[in-house]
User: Fold this.
Amino acid sequence: SSGGTVDAVFSVELEECSRNPQYREVDDGGSAENHVSEDPEEKLDSDAEYTQIQPYAGMPKEVLLLHSSKARYRVTREILFWLMVACTLALVALTVTVIALSPRCMNWWQVSPVYQVYLRSFSDSDGDGVGDLKGIQKQLDHFQYLNIKSVWVGPFYRSPMRDSGYDVEDFRAIDPLFGTMNDFEELLAKMHSVGLKLIMDFIPNHTSDRHRWFNLSRATDPHYKDYYVWSDCDGSSPRPNNWVSVFGRSAWTYDEVRGQCYLHQFLKEQPELNFRNPHVRKEMTDIIHFWLAKGVDGFRMGAVKHLLEAAHLRDEPQVDPNKAPESVVSEWDLYHDYTISQLGLHDLLRDWRAEMEAYSREPGKYRFMVTESYDYEEVDKTMMYYGTSLVKESDFPFNFYLLDLPQNTSGLWVQHLVQLWMDNMPKGQWANWLVGNHDKPRIASSAGQTYIRVINMLLLTLPGTPTTYYGEEIGMENVNVTDSQAQDLAGKYNASASRDPQRSPMQWSGDMNAGFNNKTNVTWLPVHPDYRSINVEVQKKDEGSVLAQYRFLNTLRQSEVPLQRGWFCYVHADAGVFSYLRELDGLDRAFLMVLNFGKESAITDLSPIAELPDQLKVLKSTNQVSDGKALQKSRILTEAGEGLVIQYSTNTRFNPNHPEQCYVSEKTCYLSVVDILYTC
Ligand code: GLC
Ligand code: MG
Assistant:
């Protein structure tokens, strides 16, 4: 019988296998029934002999095969197999979906404001009257306190300091005034260890006239002779053309060594590099590599619109054609058709960006690029620096339009300036805002102290990255600088063009020299006399201070997704008030800002905005007494210079009904059931 055959095979096999004692017993006892079924499966099933053979260890292959082909095993196996296939596919699909739907992580330069340190004036560690690298290191707590992660440190290259370090003598060395390369490396390491990023100035347009390249160039060294822009001229007028310097007078200076004129769009001590020369381009690229390899996190690329000049050197057209050519001395006298924003400029920047990208690949190592270009009413020119969807350029060009805010403090004007950027910025790009820097009067002076709080509130609640010039967080003002104290050569021909007033030492405390240094009485520019009331130490103790408000809003901005990446929608603007909201689809929590830039108190009626709840509550006012106040949306009272951040809860979003009033960099939605954000 077939049963017998199986038995025989078993005995044979068992001789050779590791033995199963239980099996042995059963086999030896011969108690197994010899019933044989027609169906081999059924036979095995019902066969007591086999049911007792457990566990299967030691079973010969054939027996195992017999078992495993039973329906109950086979079907289970097949179900499990297909289940596994389905699960794998589902997992892959889920992963792909999650990746596809996850909003991009916000980068470090988007999450935090950029804090601009004007090195000479921030903190003086050695008491020589000039701020230095060690001084910054001493003050890192300040950034932590303000919840600031990105710090732009002004130029520290070796320099004769004719233009405050923007005249570079050696792009690979630190000026002894600021410290040593070791100090720099230490500062960078320290900053990185506490999660701070360092952005430095890159100054490609010109060098100092003391730079080695310039000396070789004026000596007509064959390699260096075309490093700068030279043209024939003699010691007296006429100059090669009518071009003028940004700081006034002719942009040409005669060089006795070479017997020719060289071009400078800034000081005569800042000869323009010739970017039509490939060696110059290579030199500057190498310098970028040098600092990226040291670990700097980004560059502020200065004066980039001046990089190239028309090679034909033709006269620029006069704004007033009737003006006598010899009285054409200011940058406002000419249309800069040949010295500014020349063709090829963006190729240079895009090439540098590509070099930076190579260093950006490691996680957490993104290298940031911001460009400086004042294009005034030609906002399209500024927007070019964003690059295209195919070729990357800067992460953002500095937005200088809010510098015009003091011209007309009104809600409509501020809305106009904000809109100028939002309407012209290429889709999907990231906005940015500033109201001051080392080249422009301080906002607290030009707009007035009344508005400093509401201006900071604007910057910290608009979409995009704000830049804060040192001291703006405490409302520092311009300082009066007498003729004998004057430092800035830009004010040489016209004292009102001097940038000294906005460069006075940082006001840390009520101590000597406002705590800027404590070893001497000397500071390179005078400390502002208001330092006893306007300083960090005093304001830290005062919950209603400019500083406390800055800190609160910056922390709020970083913890609230609607403020970080949500929609920005215009709600209202009039002579006094500018109002907008920030919301995120799927999230009930939203923020309404009501900012009074006017000269009088105002009552704003937002009852036409159906998406807003009738009852509102002030989360933060620039007037501390109004914090927590309950409001009717039909009667929102603000004093002149008062700003309100109102947090509210709603389940109807404003943006779907008013798309023309709203803007978002990248659409993100919130899914409350699983508490995640996704791209929508
Ligand atoms: C940059 C700086 C400015 C300097 C100019 C010329 O624009 O911001 O301070 O004077 O370059 O170097
Ligand atoms: Mg140039």
